[in-house]
Design a protein that fits this description.
The protein has helices at 2-12, 16-24, 28-48, 61-89, 95-105, 112-120, 126-151, 157-182. With 191 residues, the protein is mostly helical.
Length: 191
């Protein structure tokens, strides 16, 4: 696991040989999904400790979905961008390779677990720090996507920026729509 986290950090530094290695590594799909899944699950458990009802809060739609939706929306946006690049910009790349690299780049989101740990320890209210770290993590994933479109997709800067912009808006819209459907009008992303 340590090697995978180190690879994720190298991908955030735009290390092209590491990106290429992760894209073709068969086990990287499993590790990428794990890198994406660990923060929401751990944050859900830690956040439940902040409620008087304890672990029962895990099953509340007000606790469960706000932790899970950002990861689901990020996956949807990644595959949406990959599909749009192929369909509309004639970019030829491996969708799973693209996903693996971007899933590894989400390693920054592991810092969100620190926000809830500090909350459990009574140091601070984790809400605002969690939102800030989540937004920064998402921006970093889309930053890496931009460079993948330039390097692997051979897209122009304008096309890559347009795809990433559309992907980021899709990420926010997916969260909003799923949040409204699964949580209700109380769901808030970054406000």
């Amino acid at each position: 696991m340590i090697k995978e986290i180190k690879d994720g950090i190298q991908i955030l530094k735009l290390n092209k040989p590491v990106m290429a290695a992760v894209a073709v590594r068969p086990s990287a799909k499993k590790w990428g999904l794990l890198i994406l899944a660990v923060p929401p699950v751990v944050n859900l458990i830690l956040s439940s400790m902040l409620f008087p009802s304890g672990f029962e809060a895990i099953f509340s739609s007000f606790s469960f979905w706000p932790m899970i939706l950002p990861a689901l929306a990020l996956c949807g946006a990644i595959f949406g961008m990959s599909y749009a690049a192929e369909k509309f910009f004639k970019s030829s790349h491996n969708h799973w390779g693209f996903f693996k690299v971007l899933a590894y780049s989400s390693v920054f989101l592991w810092l969100t677990m620190g926000a809830f740990l500090l909350g459990v320890l009574g140091v601070l209210d984790p809400g605002e720090l969690y939102k800030l770290l989540s937004l920064i993590g998402a921006v970093l994933v889309f930053f890496v996507a931009y460079h993948l479109f330039l390097d692997w997709g051979k897209l122009s800067q304008q096309d890559a920026a347009m795809l990433v912009g559309i992907g980021f808006v899709a990420y926010l819209l997916l969260q909003l729509i799923l949040g409204r459907v699964l949580v209700g009008g109380y769901y808030r992303m970054y406000s």
